Amino acid sequence: MNGLLHAHSGLRWVVLILLLASIITGFLAASKNKPYKKGLYAATMGFLHIQVILGIVVLIARYFPLETPMGEIMKNPDARFIIVEHPAMMLIAAIIATVGFSLGKRAQTDAKKHKNTAVMYAIALLVILVAIPWDVNRLF
Description:
By secondary structure, this protein is mainly alpha-helical. It has 5 helices and no strands. The chain has one domain (2-139).
């Protein structure tokens, strides 16, 4: 179980770096009207989806079935963050990024493709940064 948690914690850095690279690349490529190539965007999407799946597995393996009633969990800010808020926000971020990837592929011009993807990835990154448990003590 700890191996999965460490993999999930470590993979976050790969996802964050790929998102940043995709955002910067997207805005630069849009401003220079470069041809749209989805390689970096697709890699980002793949690693983000792997991260979400790992997170779901960690959540289920570590916390379910719940030993504490949900009402009590909701009263405890740390437990609520880990069991409810973090997973919900990460799913929302993954959905935003996935929609951005799809919008990017379907846009009319290359510049618009890059811009759509970069904007949605930036929004997803902001949600992810808010939802990451930066305080490691919350996890243990």
